[in-house]
User: Which sequence fits this backbone?
């Protein structure tokens, strides 16, 4: 094999034919979109944008410092999460909100998360049990600090509450069930902010976490799923009652919605 043949036979690297600079730019752009999706999701879920509010590129570009193409891709991803709607000739809007939609979300979450919890109880190991105990402990500790009125503590409570419910179903081996549960949880969080229910505001609901954990650790799937259903039913009633009340443009964290 001569030098020219050897040169032409040189093995190609993955992605050969694409300039290294172009690959770097593509990766950077993908990272920018992912970061923007997270920021927009947070602002929509925490009701900083009103339900059904138009999402104009010019205004969003000013707020987030992003290009139109990056905004378009980020909003398209959020449309896939049912947080944003898109209509031809009308563009993107925040997903609408209604008591019927809230009821549908809570009912679906109750049914799907019960399936995931049952599978989690059947398949969870010792590490899973430890995760459930630790998540409940952190939630309880944070609950005790909510009286301070600190927004930082309120945000921490939300994170701890999310982690507890995620821990309960973490033993489930179906990634699709976990994904559906996460999607419905985000939708539920959005409605809680829409109706302005502060974190941990209803002690009766918070108190249901302990018995739910105990039944889960006892591997009593029937009791745990029954308690979970009651928890979601009571949460649904509380949120729907709050939804019927007049609301200001202040979210549950005390922040005003964006103009």
Assistant:
């Amino acid at each position: 094999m001569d030098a020219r043949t050897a040169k032409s036979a040189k093995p190609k690297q993955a992605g050969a034919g694409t300039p290294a600079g172009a690959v770097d730019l593509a990766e950077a752009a993908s990272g920018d979109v992912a970061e923007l999706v997270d920021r927009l999701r947070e602002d929509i879920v925490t009701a900083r944008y009103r339900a059904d509010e138009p999402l104009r590129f010019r205004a969003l570009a000013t707020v987030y410092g992003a290009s139109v193409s990056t905004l378009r891709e980020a909003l398209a991803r959020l449309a896939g999460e049912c947080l944003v709607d898109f209509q031809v000739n009308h563009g993107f809007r925040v997903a609408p909100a209604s008591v019927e939609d809230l009821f549908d979300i809570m009912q679906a979450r109750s049914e799907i998360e019960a399936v995931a919890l049952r599978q989690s109880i059947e398949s969870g190991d010792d590490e899973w049990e430890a995760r459930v105990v630790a998540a409940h402990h952190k939630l309880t500790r944070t609950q005790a600090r909510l009286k301070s009125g600190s927004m930082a503590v309120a945000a921490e409570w939300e994170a701890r509450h999310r982690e507890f419910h995620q821990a309960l179903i973490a033993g489930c081996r179906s990634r699709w069930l976990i994904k559906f549960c996460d999607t419905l949880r985000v939708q539920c969080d959005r409605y809680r902010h829409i109706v302005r229910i502060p974190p941990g505001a209803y002690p009766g609901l918070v108190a249901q976490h302990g018995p739910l954990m105990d039944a889960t650790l006892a591997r009593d799937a029937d009791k745990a799923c029954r308690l979970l259903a009651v928890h979601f039913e009571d949460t649904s009633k509380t949120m729907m009652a709050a939804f019927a009340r007049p609301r200001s443009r202040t979210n549950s964290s005390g922040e005003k919605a964006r103009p």
Remarks:
- The first helix runs from residue 3 to 8.
- The chain is about 65% helix and 5% strand.
